[in-house]
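thought: user wants a sequence for this fold. calling inverse folding tool.
action: design(structure=
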C-alpha cells in the first residue's frame, strides 16, 4: 500500500489568522474597549497612570493603588432609578473616582453627572456611621464633544462661595476633559502627561503620530497594545463594532432630524411671511382678486386668513385690562 501523507483533520492545528486592522480608525474611547483597557485589575497600572496624569497637582499626593468597585449603583427604594457608571474605583488616597466617557452630545448632561456623584457619595456611608467616614468622591468625564463655554480643555468644579473665593469642602469635585480643546499638534516634548493621553484619545491624529506619543509614555504604549489585542479577539471585536455602529446610527439620525427640523422651520417661516403679506395687502384695501394673484392663495384661503386675523385682534381687545376709573370727589353729603 502506498504511503498516505495526508494529515488527519482531527490532529490538525490551525494558526489563528491575524485580523488586519485600520489602525488610524481605532477609537480608544469605544465603550467596550475603554472598559477593557481601564476597568480591569490586570491593567490597573494603566488606569493609575491616567488618573495621576489628570489629578497631578491637586494636593492629595500620587495614587499608587486602586480597587475597582461595582459599576451598578442600586437604589435604596424600589421606585428609584438604577445608576450604571462606566468605571469606578477606590484609591489608596481614601477616595472613590468614577471615570465616565461621553462620545455623544447629551441633554441635561450636568444634571446626569451630579446624579451619578450623589449616588456614589451616599453609597459609602451607612446608617450610624460618622460623617468622618465620608469619602472624597470625584468624577472624571472625558468628552469627545465640546460642552462648556470656557477655553480650557480641563475644567474643575467644586462647591464654592464666589464672593469669598472659599471652597466649602474637598469631598466634591467634578473634572471635565474636552478632547476637542486640546492642542494635539503641540510638540510632544511640550505636552503634559494629561495632554498626551487626550491627544491619543482624539480622532485627529494618525496612528503613527499616536505611536510617537506612546514612545514617551509607557502606560500609553501598553494601552495601545492592549487595544490591538482586544480587536484580535472575535467576541471583543464584535462588541467594538456594535458600539461603533450604535454611535454612527445615533449621529446619522440626529443629523437627519436636524435637517428635517430646519426644512420644516424654513417652510413654516415662508408660510407665515406669505400670510403676513396677505394681511398687509388687505389693510391697504387691495382687492382679494389681486391678492390671490400675488400670493398664489385662493380667495377662500385669503378670506380665512383675514378672518383669523380679525378674530385674533378682537380677542386681544376683549382680553385687554380696562383702565381704572379715577375716583370721583362727590363732595360732602348734604343734609
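)
observation: tool returned 335 residues.
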Amino acid at each position: 500500500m502506498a504511503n498516505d501523507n495526508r494529515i488527519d483533520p482531527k490532529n490538525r492545528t490551525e494558526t489563528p489568522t491575524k485580523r488586519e486592522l485600520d489602525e488610524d480608525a481605532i477609537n480608544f474611547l469605544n465603550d467596550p474597549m475603554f472598559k477593557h483597557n481601564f476597568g480591569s485589575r490586570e491593567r490597573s497600572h494603566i488606569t493609575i497612570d491616567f488618573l495621576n496624569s489628570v489629578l497631578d497637582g491637586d494636593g492629595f499626593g500620587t495614587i499608587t493603588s486602586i480597587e475597582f468597585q461595582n459599576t451598578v449603583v442600586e437604589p435604596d427604594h424600589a421606585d428609584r432609578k438604577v445608576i450604571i457608571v462606566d468605571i469606578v474605583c477606590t484609591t489608596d488616597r481614601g477616595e472613590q473616582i468614577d471615570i465616565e466617557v461621553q462620545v455623544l452630545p447629551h441633554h441635561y448632561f450636568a444634571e446626569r453627572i451630579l446624579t451619578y456623584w450623589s449616588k456614589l457619595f451616599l453609597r459609602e456611608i451607612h446608617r450610624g456611621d460618622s460623617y468622618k467616614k465620608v469619602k472624597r468622591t470625584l468624577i472624571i468625564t472625558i468628552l469627545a464633544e465640546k460642552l462648556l463655554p470656557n477655553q480650557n480643555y480641563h475644567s474643575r468644579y467644586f462647591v464654592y462661595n464666589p464672593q469669598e473665593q472659599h471652597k466649602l469642602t474637598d469631598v466634591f469635585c467634578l473634572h471635565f476633559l474636552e478632547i476637542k480643546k486640546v492642542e494635539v499638534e503641540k510638540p510632544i516634548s511640550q505636552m503634559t502627561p494629561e495632554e498626551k493621553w487626550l491627544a491619543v484619545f482624539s480622532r485627529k491624529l494618525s496612528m503613527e503620530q499616536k505611536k510617537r506619543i506612546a514612545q514617551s509614555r509607557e502606560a500609553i504604549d501598553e494601552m495601545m497594545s492592549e487595544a490591538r489585542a482586544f480587536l484580535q479577539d472575535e467576541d471583543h471585536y464584535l462588541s467594538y463594532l456594535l458600539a461603533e455602529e450604535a454611535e454612527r446610527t445615533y449621529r446619522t439620525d440626529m443629523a437627519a432630524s436636524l435637517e428635517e427640523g430646519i426644512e420644516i422651520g424654513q417652510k413654516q417661516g415662508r408660510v407665515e411671511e406669505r400670510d403676513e403679506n396677505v394681511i398687509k395687502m388687505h389693510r391697504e384695501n387691495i382687492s382679494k382678486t389681486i391678492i390671490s394673484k400675488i400670493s398664489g392663495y385662493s380667495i377662500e384661503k385669503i378670506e380665512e386668513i383675514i378672518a383669523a386675523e380679525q378674530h385674533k385682534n378682537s380677542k386681544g381687545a376683549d382680553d385687554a385690562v380696562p383702565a381704572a376709573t379715577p375716583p370721583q370727589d362727590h363732595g360732602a353729603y348734604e343734609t
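thought: summarizing for user.
answer: Here is the designed sequence. The chain has two domains: 22-232, 265-314.
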